[in-house]
Predict the 3D structure of the following.
Amino acid sequence: MALVELLLSPLPSHVRTARLVAVAAARRAGLDDERVDELRLAVGEACSRAVGLHARHAPDVPVRLTVADDVSGLTLTVSDAGPAAGPVPDDPAEGMLADEPHHGLDGHGDPDVALAVLNGLVDDVTVKTEPGATVVTMRWPLPAGAGPRTTIVAQR
């Protein structure tokens, strides 16, 4: 099993770093190009959401990204220290045209919409809310024959 843990300062420029690390781990684990592209978008959404929440609510606390692979697949977890997420709407546009104003990350967007977008991008995503935190876990199965690679050294 391979495990990568990344702590990011809540700066938008660090989202790119998170994507690069996640993509490298996904390729190493054997994910195909189509799934790697999906993963890149999903990590960008999840980390952008977390960075935006931290910038407003916990600027001194790093965003945590973990990437793990094992025989069951590749698992990415993004943990934030912002307010707990609301219920994830099935339709990302749900409520956007309501009369009440939406106050999201920058006053223009809703952080919970990012979670709805993740539901559309990733087949296996769970959102766990705790007081003052949200943990987004995304999983991708690995193709047959892929997975954590072990190097075997033969002796003569």
In short: The chain is about 35% helix and 25% strand. The longest helix spans residues 33-57. The radius of gyration is 17 Å. Confidence is low (pLDDT under 50) at residues 95-108, 150-156.
